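Dear colleagues,

For the upcoming journal club I promised to circulate an example of a predicted protein-ligand complex. I picked one with pyridoxal-5'-phosphate because it came up in last month's discussion. The inputs are reproduced below in full, followed by the predicted structure.
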Amino acid sequence: MGKMIYLDNAATTRTAPEVVQAMMPYFSELYGNPSSVYDFAGRSKEAVDRARGQIAGVLGAKKEEIYFTAGGTESDNWALKAAFEAYKAKGNHIITTKIEHHAILHTCEYLEKNRGARITYLDVDENGIIRLEDLEKAITPETILISVMFANNEIGSVQPIKEIGMIAREHGILFHTDAVQAFCQLPINVDECGIDMLSSSAHKINGPKGIGFLYIRKGVKNRSFIHGGAQERKRRAGTENVPGIVGYGVAAQRACDSMEERTDKERRLRDYLIQRITTEIPYVKLNGHPEKRLPNNVNVSFRFVEGESLLLMLDSYGICGSSGSACTSGSLDPSHVLLAIGLPHEIAHGSLRLTLSEETTKEDIDFTVDKLKEIVQNLRNMSPLYEDFMKKQK
Ligand SMILES: *Cc1c(COP(=O)(O)O)cnc(C)c1O
C-alpha cells in the first residue's frame, strides 16, 4: 500500500505514541485493581486519580465531577436516561435537536417509546445552527432537560452553547451537551457555559477507543447507570479501565496544551481545502457554517455525484474520507443532518466529509484536491443527469 492520507478524524484518530507509551505499564507491571488496599494497587488508583485531574483541568471542573465511562455513546445514554429518571417527578419533557449523534437521538426515541418522555427536536437553520427563539418557545413547565451538541460531527457547526446555557439556567432546566467533537478542539469552561452534564470520548482526541467520561455538575441529581461495585463514587460500577483512563488523561493534557497552535494550523488548512474545492470544482456547496465550524471539518456536496462512489475512488488513491457519519455509511439513507439543513436527497447523496488532524499537511490537501477534481469529473461524465444538465446549459 502507498501512502495513506487519513482525512476521517471525526470518525476516530490515531492514538498518539506518547499516549500508548503512558498506557503500557498499566497493561504489564502495574496491573493492580484500584479498589484493592495494598500499596501495589494504590499505584493504579493514583493513576486514575491523576487522569481525572488532567481532564477536570481542561473543563474548569472539579475532579469529583468527572465519571469515566466506556465512551461517548455510554455517556450520552447515561446523561439522558438517568436525568429523566431522576427528574421525572418534575416533568417528562426533553428538548434536543434534529442533528444530534445517534447516541442521543436513539436514546430519545427509547425514552419516548418506553418511558413516557415527550421530546422536542429543534430544527436548525441552513448552516446547521439552532435558533434561540425556537428553544425559548419549546420550553414548558414540564421541561427537565435540554441536550444540544457542542459541535456537529458531520458538518462541524458549533452551537451557541453559552446562550443555551443561560436560557437553561434562567428556566431552572438541566443542560447537557455532547461535546465529543468539541473537547480539546474548542475551549470549554463548564461554569462559563452553564453546562450541567457533558459527554466526551478519548478516541476522538488521539486517545484510546472504548473510554469516555460524563461530567456531572455537583448537586445535579443523577442515578447510577451501571449497578455493582462502588467504583466512580457508586455511580458507574465495574473495575476501572485503568490503561484507557491513563491514556485519556495524557491525551487530554496533550491536546489541551497544544490546542491553540494545533487548531490554528488545522483552520488554515481547512480554509485552504475549502477554498480550493469551491473555486476549482463547479456545482459544489459547502455544508455547515462558514465560520462557526470545527477547526478540522470540511463537508461539501457535489451535484451529479454519488458520495459512495466518490469514497471508493478516493480510497483507491489511499485517501480516507466519509460520506456522512461512519455509523450510517453502509445504509443508503441520506444523513439526517444533511436533510435537517435542507439539502434535497440527491444533493445530500453527493456529500463528502474530510476531517483533518495535526498530522495533515498542505501536500496531503493538494494531492487530495487534485484527485478529487479528476474523480468528480469522471463520475459526472458517467452521469446521465449531468449530461442532461449540460445540454440544457447550452
Ligand atoms: C463519536 C461520537 C459519539 C460516540 O462516541 P463513541 O466513543 O464512539 O461511542 C457521540 N457523539 C458524537 C458527536 C461523536 O462524534
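Two points we might discuss: The radius of gyration is 22 Å. The chain has 13 helices and twelve strands.

See you all on Thursday,
B. R.
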